[in-house]
Design goal:
CATH superfamily: Rieske [2Fe-2S] iron-sulphur domain
CATH architecture: 3-layer Sandwich
Structural class: mainly beta
Helix content: under 10%
Oligomer: single chain
Order of helices and strands: EEEEEEEEEEEE
Length: 110
C-alpha cells in the first residue's frame, strides 16, 4: 500500500479543504467534514477548476467554484449539472493524529 502523509488532524478544521500533490499524481483535495476525512481528485470532471478552491458543506458536498456543479466527497458521485462524470476518491486513514492518503486504492465510483 502506498501512503502519503497529508497533515496532522488539528491542521485542518471542519468544512475545510486542503490541496496536496502526492508524487506522481495530480492535485488531490482533502476534506474534513464532521471530524471525518475524505479525499478526491482536485480537478472538476466538467472543467479544469480546482475543487479545493470551492466549499464543502456539512452534507459532504463540494461545490465547484467555476460553474457550481457539485460532488459527494465520500463517493465521488456528480450530484448536479453541469457535472455529470464522477471524480476519483481516495481512502483516508488517520493514525496517531496524522492524516494519510491510500494512493494505491484511488478509484472512480459511479
Amino acid at each position: 500500500m502506498s501512503r502519503f502523509y497529508v497533515c496532522d488532524t488539528e491542521a485542518l478544521g471542519n468544512n475545510e479543504i486542503r490541496q496536496v500533490t502526492p508524487p506522481g499524481l495530480g492535485p488531490v483535495a482533502v476534506y474534513r467534514v464532521a471530524d471525518a476525512f475524505y479525499a478526491t481528485d482536485d480537478i472538476c470532471s466538467h472543467g479544469q477548476a480546482l475543487l479545493s478552491e470551492g466549499e464543502v458543506d456539512e452534507d459532504c458536498v463540494v461545490e465547484c467554484p467555476w460553474h457550481g456543479g457539485t460532488f459527494d466527497v465520500r463517493t465521488g458521485e456528480a450530484l448536479s449539472f453541469p457535472c455529470v462524470l464522477p471524480i476519483k476518491v481516495y481512502p483516508v486513514t488517520v493514525e496517531s493524529g496524522r492524516v494519510y492518503l491510500d494512493l494505491a486504492s484511488g478509484e472512480v465510483k459511479p
